[in-house]
Design goal:
385 residues; mainly alpha; two-stranded antiparallel sheet; 13 helices; 69% helix
Length: 385
């Protein structure tokens, strides 16, 4: 019976990792695929490798927190582990159904917290630290990108142009005694550098996704000793890779096509800031949401860029800018970047800060971990397992 439950638990863990791979690959490599820097097969291969690297290194700290610090390891029976993973799978189903990037990390922690409250074993100090970071991280992501958007982004947009020429990026020069790599026809050093940068940032994002999400798939099974941390990372990495090579093809198409609303430069800034924040939290053992941080980076970058139309003095007097993603798509002025406080060229892109859309996303961010915690509590308090 125990062996059967373990197989069920591993099956649910693979299902969770499979869905994580499908969604995270689009987030990490969508900009690179959309700009034709890498193909879908290469994106899936790199996603698998770097997610596994992130889980094997930094991700172990998050597994430790979720598998033994929030509640004691003794609470993770096989049955309880399967139930917790089931709630994570349901959260993925709900988020996919409503098209909202709900946090699997927050939902998994909610399910574990429900188990701890029901059994009276919740480590309140650890839980308070995690929740505090859940509040601080999105705010920090917003303000870092807001500062970049207001003071740095216009100058980057005017100077950093990611070029693409026809033909191969690099080819082999066979004129000498040994073949040597050289720039392809029409390829400039600037294009080579920008292409390498886009690919490197995508791999960094994949590393961050693996570091934060590996625990969501296997922490309960590691917590009860059914598998050790190394085995857990390998199971999660394989499942993430399976999702990357299969269902991620659709998310790569979606994210790549949606880049018309978020320029490649803006997407790269969002990826660097959000991945750095989540990697830092994973190093600290804090399970946090990459999707939430990335979304707040987008909002902060657009808001900061839009506030260039008013000075700080104007803002203190109550004047507010018209906040829109339009400003992220702005072409740099031919005579240089407009100084802060001057009106810039109006644009026609879709409004990023649609109150109904933003409200729906925030609502589901709060709803999914809350439902997970409540459902977990009701299950474990009524049926001790």
């Amino acid at each position: 019976m125990v062996e059967l439950l373990l197989l069920v638990g591993l099956g649910v863990a693979v299902f969770v990792g499979f869905n994580i791979g499908g969604s995270s690959t689009g987030v990490a490599f969508g900009p690179a695929v959309g700009s034709r820097v890498v193909g879908k097969f290469a994106a899936a291969s790199l996603m698998t490798a770097f997610a596994l690297l992130g889980g094997w290194t930094v991700g172990r700290n998050v597994i430790q927190t979720m598998g033994g610090d929030i509640v004691p390891r003794s609470q993770f029976s096989i049955e309880a582990s399967v139930a917790v993973l089931f709630f994570v799978g349901i959260a993925l189903l709900v988020s996919n159904t409503f098209g909202v990037p709900a946090s699997t990390s927050m939902t998994a922690v909610g399910a574990i917290a429900g188990l701890g409250v029901a059994t009276g074993t919740l480590n309140e100090a650890v839980m308070l630290e995690i929740i505090s970071w859940w509040v601080v991280a999105p705010v920090l992501a917003f303000w870092v990108c807001a500062v970049v958007g207001r003071y740095v982004y216009p100058y980057l947009a005017a100077r950093v142009v990611i070029e693409q020429s026809e033909g191969p990026l690099v080819c082999l020069d066979r004129t000498g005694p040994l073949p040597a790599p050289r720039l392809g026809p029409g390829t400039t050093r600037r294009e080579l550098g920008s292409t390498v940068l886009v690919g490197a940032i995508a791999c960094y994002m994949a590393f961050s996704a693996g570091a934060s999400n590996t625990a969501n798939a296997v922490a309960p099974l590691v917590g009860n000793g059914a598998i050790d941390p190394g085995q857990g990372v390998l199971v999660a990495g394989a499942a993430i890779g399976l999702g990357a090579f299969t269902i991620a093809r659709r998310t790569l198409d979606t994210v790549g096509n949606d880049l018309t609303d978020l320029p490649l430069l803006a997407a790269l800034i969002v990826e660097v800031v959000s991945a750095s924040l989540i990697t830092l939290l994973s190093h600290l053992g804090i399970p946090a949401s990459l999707a939430v941080s990335a979304t707040m980076c987008i909002v902060g970058l657009g808001w900061g860029r839009a506030t260039r139309t008013v000075t700080l003095g104007d803002a203190v007097r109550g004047e507010s800018p018209a906040v829109s993603v339009d400003v992220l798509a702005a072409e740099p002025e031919s005579d240089g970047v407009s100084p802060v406080g001057q009106e810039e060229t109006p644009l026609d892109a879709r409004d990023l800060f649609d109150p109904s859309t933003t409200g729906r996303v925030v609502f589901f961010w709060l709803l999914t971990p809350s439902l997970s915690a409540i459902a977990s509590y009701l299950l474990f308090v009524s049926t001790p397992i």
